[in-house]
């Protein structure tokens, strides 16, 4: 058999069902030196592969190593084989192990991502329409620019806070090893020490700050570029009208009669938005993820109703966050 091997006295690495490696270890993966090596579950995993018609060599390399090292249970193997059989998700999971790890560690990952993107894009589009009014379609390039940043931001929030399973080798040491043991979010279910949960808040906050600054620099710079292109087009159009019109019928028009909208400096706007994501967004989404993971399914076992409640909770979170940012931006002179 490919995955039957002698086990060393050291226990294999097993990550929790979240972002780190300090969760409870399932009973069938607890080893004590060479005790009962025949009950290591290897035969069961071989039978699972045989029934599925999948050769051991067809598995991703890190999953092969996890099976050989005893760090992948039979249930996880079945989960991977079911995921790999799905046309699109299976291909994406093979190409992007990080995506696979989140799908396997968080059954709600795609659902939460879809809810967050739908709510975020819908709310953003409505806000853009209310702000631009009759100029909405004329300024659709600005709308699409802002909408793309909403998509990126929502994806980053869901991605960073999602629990995950990791089958790759643990980092050798230092901050990388410590970070690999942290939960996806501070309230994630699992035997995580308090210091790990607090560190998760700090780490996600720093990641949110980086994502927020990057997205804001990109979006604000693009907005300024589009505004300048629009201004140049307007000036050129007025110049052509003056040249083609009769002096007696068409008086000269000042080329700069359209008042320019003052835009906040890129650096200042980006730092403020990054700080807002690191504080308000981080705290709100940490709490929201914890409530969903710990209580939602327990209190509302019906999946359809649970999904509806999750959507309402996330919609309310979006409204609260939008109101907070508008208030802060106005106080800081960014709007």
Automatic annotation (TrEMBL):
Chain residue ranges for the region called Disordered: 1-45
Bilayer topology term: Multi-pass membrane protein
Alphabetical list of InterPro entries matching this protein: RETICULATA-related
Compartment(s): Membrane; Plastid, Chloroplast
Keywords associated with the record: Chloroplast, Membrane, Plastid, Transit peptide, Transmembrane, Transmembrane helix
Keyword Plastid in annotation: yes
Family the entry assigns: Belongs to the RETICULATA family.
PANTHER family linked to this entry: PROTEIN RETICULATA-RELATED 2, CHLOROPLASTIC-RELATED, PROTEIN RETICULATA-RELATED 5, CHLOROPLASTIC
This protein's name: G12415 protein
Native source organism of the sequence: Coccomyxa viridis
Lineage: Eukaryota, Viridiplantae, Chlorophyta, core chlorophytes, Trebouxiophyceae
